[in-house]
Write a structure and sequence with these properties.
three-stranded antiparallel sheet, DNA binding, 9% strand, globular, mainly alpha
Length: 144
């Protein structure tokens, strides 16, 4: 029998691929729109760190989003190599679509859970993620 976490993640990825596809977005595009909508604006490098993905993948996704008029990148006045990214008005609309998809998924995955169970699960997942991030930071310093 497949690992339940692997099965969940596979089904979750498929759900997001299908739903974001109706908006003409790829998964990373949706993740970027979600972060920018939540944070307002971010440095391109910080997007890659927050999403734990390759800088090149973020740059390609931003190029797609910029071509569609959903984000804008501006060179930092402080450092010419830094690019600050923010949503355009059209990007705000796309962000709302991504938010709806995330809310729908929340209803799917937490069906039958009490609010307390849901909060407890989210707290556990947050702690697990923090543990893994800290471990990876330590691994990087030991090997790099």
């Amino acid at each position: 029998m497949p690992n339940r976490i692997e099965m969940f993640r596979r089904l979750e990825r498929q759900y997001f691929r299908d739903r974001l596809g109706t908006l003409g977005l790829q998964q990373l595009d949706g993740m970027i729109l979600h972060l920018l909508g939540r944070e307002g604006h971010m440095r391109q490098e910080d997007l890659a760190v927050q999403l734990a993905v390759d800088k090149g993948a973020v740059a390609r996704s931003l190029a797609r989003l910029e071509k569609r008029g959903l984000v804008e990148r501006q060179v930092s006045a402080r450092c010419r190599r830094e690019k600050h990214v923010s949503l355009t008005p059209a990007g705000e609309g796309a962000y709302q679509g991504v938010q709806r998809i995330l809310e729908e998924w929340g209803h799917v995955k937490y069906q039958g859970f009490t609010p307390e169970e849901r909060a407890l699960n989210e707290a556990f997942l947050t702690r697990i993620a923090e543990n893994v991030i800290e471990f990876c930071r330590g691994e990087g310093s030991e090997h790099g």
